[in-house]
Write a structure and sequence with these properties.
This protein is mainly β and 246 residues long. It has 3 helices and 14 strands. It has one domain: Jelly Rolls, CATH 2.60.120.1440. 14% of the residues lie in helices and 39% in strands. Strands 1, 2, 3, 4, 5, 6, 7, 8, 9, 10, 11, 12, 13 and 14 form a 14-stranded mixed beta sheet that branches. The chain starts with 9 loop residues before the first helix and ends in a 22-residue tail after the last helix. The relative contact order is 0.14.
Length: 246
C-alpha cells in the first residue's frame, strides 16, 4: 500500500480542481459552467434512473465495460483499471472508486429493492464512500471489518494492511486476524485515521495513521449526489485537509 498523498495523480487533480471551482462559484453561472465542463455536469441529486456521475478510463461492472448509462445495483462487482475511476450512487450510498480497485456490493437481505446494500467488500484499491443515517452497513477489506452508522469513510485495501479514515460519524473497526484489536471511532472531521495490519502481535494490529489521499471537496461532491452535505464543509471556508495536525 502506498503511504503517501496521491493528490498529484492527474485524474484526481482535475477532479479536485473542478470541485473547488464548483464550490467557490456557487451561484455564479460562469463558475458553474467551468466546473461542469471538467466534471461532466454540475453535482446535484442523481436522478433515480441513473447510477454513474463520472466515468474515466477502464471500468467494468460485473465484467462488462461500463458506460454512463450503466446501472449499478446491489450485488454488483465494480472494477477499475490503472487509468480508471468512477463516481457512482447506489440507493443512499455514494462512492468514488479510484484506479486499480475492486469492490463488491453486498445486497441487503430479504429486500425487494435492488438499490439497497447491506455492505461492501473492498478487495483491493481505494474507495471514498458516504452512507445515510439509520441503516447499519458492514464493510470489509482483506484484513479488517468496519461497521458504520451514518458515516463518511475513506479506505485503502491490499492483502497486507488497510487504511481507514472515519471522515465523520461512527465506525466499529476490527482486525480480521486479531480478535484483540478493536476500535470504535467517533469522528467529526477525520479525527483518527488508522492502519489495520494483516500480521501483528495480538492486540497490536491497529495503529494510528496520517490523513492521506482524499479531500473535503470530494466528500461534498458525493454527498451532494444523494441530497446531503458533509457536517463540516461550508462555501467560503474551503480546505483540502483536516484542521488538525497528525
Amino acid at each position: 500500500m502506498k503511504r503517501y498523498d496521491d493528490t498529484e495523480d492527474p485524474r484526481r487533480r482535475v477532479l479536485v480542481q473542478a470541485l473547488t471551482a464548483w464550490i467557490t462559484s456557487l451561484g455564479l453561472p460562469s463558475g458553474l459552467a467551468s466546473a461542469a465542463s471538467a466534471l461532466g455536469s454540475v453535482p446535484s441529486l442523481m436522478p433515480s434512473n441513473k447510477s454513474i456521475f463520472r466515468l474515466n478510463g477502464m471500468v467494468t461492472v460485473n465484467g462488462i465495460q461500463a458506460t454512463m448509462e450503466t446501472r449499478i445495483l446491489a450485488g454488483d462487482t465494480i472494477q477499475t483499471g490503472k487509468d480508471g475511476e468512477i463516481v457512482f450512487v447506489v440507493g443512499g450510498t455514494s462512492m468514488i472508486l479510484r484506479a486499480d480497485s475492486n469492490v463488491v456490493l453486498d445486497p441487503a437481505p430479504k429486500e425487494t429493492s435492488s438499490s439497497l446494500i447491506n455492505g461492501l467488500r473492498l478487495l483491493t484499491g481505494k474507495l471514498l464512500s458516504v452512507y445515510g443515517k439509520g441503516r447499519p452497513v458492514r464493510i470489509s477489506t482483506m484484513v479488517a471489518t468496519i461497521g458504520i452508522r451514518g458515516t463518511g469513510v475513506y479506505m485503502e485495501s491490499d492483502p497486507e494492511q488497510s487504511y481507514i479514515c472515519t471522515c465523520y460519524g461512527v465506525t466499529d473497526i476490527s482486525a480480521i486476524n486479531d480478535a484483540e484489536s478493536k476500535e470504535t471511532v467517533s469522528a467529526t472531521h477525520h479525527d483518527r485515521p488508522l492502519y489495520i495490519l494483516g500480521k501483528a502481535p495480538a492486540g497490536a494490529s491497529i495503529r494510528n495513521a496520517p490523513f492521506i489521499n482524499h479531500t473535503d471537496q470530494e466528500l461534498m461532491l458525493i454527498e451532494s449526489l444523494v441530497g446531503r452535505t458533509p457536517p463540516f464543509v461550508f462555501p467560503g471556508n474551503l480546505y483540502n485537509a483536516p484542521r488538525r495536525d497528525y
